[in-house]
């Protein structure tokens, strides 16, 4: 995606969040959405967080995907500094298996919205997909890529109706 200006910012509170957040990036790449990614910590680099969020729109971003674990302040703090849509991905924590992260992101006070996704890989994957859908509102190529992806998902189910692993559904 280096040949076009990023439309989605994928940020995380720590480098250790990458194994989850890489799934958001993989979905964006699959759908042809230009993105940027970096570590921006709400607790260790608050000035960087504020600068990143405040400058995001003028840099051409249309949506920010923010992953965080534990106290998970990153998505909410980013949302407090930009009018862009912010999608929060709860990263699984050791202590509470991500429930703490989920609740921290979901329980934003009225007036500061953060779209909250599922904990972990599924949430990151869907955050990438949802970010692409948002970008697709103004980019027909991205919208078409999302529509093709959804059609593929439908066809996979139709082609494999039998859930048993040892049965070839296509031969029936």
Automatic annotation (TrEMBL):
<feature type="binding site">
    <location>
        <position position="44"/>
    </location>
    <ligand>
        <name>substrate</name>
    </ligand>
</feature>
<dbReference type="GO" id="GO:0004638">
    <property type="term" value="F:phosphoribosylaminoimidazole carboxylase activity"/>
</dbReference>
<feature type="domain" description="PurE">
    <location>
        <begin position="6"/>
        <end position="157"/>
    </location>
</feature>
<protein>
    <recommendedName>
        <fullName>N5-carboxyaminoimidazole ribonucleotide mutase</fullName>
        <ecNumber>5.4.99.18</ecNumber>
    </recommendedName>
</protein>
<keyword id="KW-0658">Purine biosynthesis</keyword>
<comment type="pathway">
    <text>Purine metabolism; IMP biosynthesis via de novo pathway; 5-amino-1-(5-phospho-D-ribosyl)imidazole-4-carboxylate from 5-amino-1-(5-phospho-D-ribosyl)imidazole (N5-CAIR route): step 2/2.</text>
</comment>
<dbReference type="InterPro" id="IPR033747">
    <property type="entry name" value="PurE_ClassI"/>
</dbReference>
<feature type="binding site">
    <location>
        <position position="14"/>
    </location>
    <ligand>
        <name>substrate</name>
    </ligand>
</feature>
<dbReference type="InterPro" id="IPR000031">
    <property type="entry name" value="PurE_dom"/>
</dbReference>
<dbReference type="GO" id="GO:0034023">
    <property type="term" value="F:5-(carboxyamino)imidazole ribonucleotide mutase activity"/>
</dbReference>
<feature type="binding site">
    <location>
        <position position="17"/>
    </location>
    <ligand>
        <name>substrate</name>
    </ligand>
</feature>
<comment type="similarity">
    <text>Belongs to the AIR carboxylase family. Class I subfamily.</text>
</comment>
<keyword id="KW-0456">Lyase</keyword>
<keyword id="KW-0413">Isomerase</keyword>
<dbReference type="Pfam" id="PF00731">
    <property type="entry name" value="AIRC"/>
</dbReference>
<comment type="function">
    <text>Catalyzes the conversion of N5-carboxyaminoimidazole ribonucleotide (N5-CAIR) to 4-carboxy-5-aminoimidazole ribonucleotide (CAIR).</text>
</comment>
<dbReference type="InterPro" id="IPR024694">
    <property type="entry name" value="PurE_prokaryotes"/>
</dbReference>
């Amino acid at each position: 995606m280096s040949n076009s200006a990023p439309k989605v910012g994928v940020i995380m509170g720590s480098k250790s969040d990458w194994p989850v957040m890489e799934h958001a990036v993989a979905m964006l790449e699959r759908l042809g959405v230009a993105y940027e990614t970096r570590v921006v910590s709400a607790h260790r680099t608050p000035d960087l967080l504020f600068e990143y969020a405040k400058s995001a729109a003028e840099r051409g971003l249309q949506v920010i995907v923010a992953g965080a674990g534990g106290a998970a302040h990153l998505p909410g703090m980013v949302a407090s500094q930009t009018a862009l849509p912010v999608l929060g991905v709860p990263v699984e924590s050791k202590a509470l298996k991500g429930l703490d992260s989920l609740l921290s992101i979901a329980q934003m006070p009225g007036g500061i919205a953060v779209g909250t996704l599922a904990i972990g890989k599924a949430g990151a994957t869907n955050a990438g997909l949802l970010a692409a859908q948002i970008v697709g509102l103004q980019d027909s190529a991205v919208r078409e890529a999302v529509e093709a992806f959804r059609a593929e998902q439908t066809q996979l189910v139709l082609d494999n109706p039998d859930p048993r692993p040892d049965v070839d559904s296509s031969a029936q």
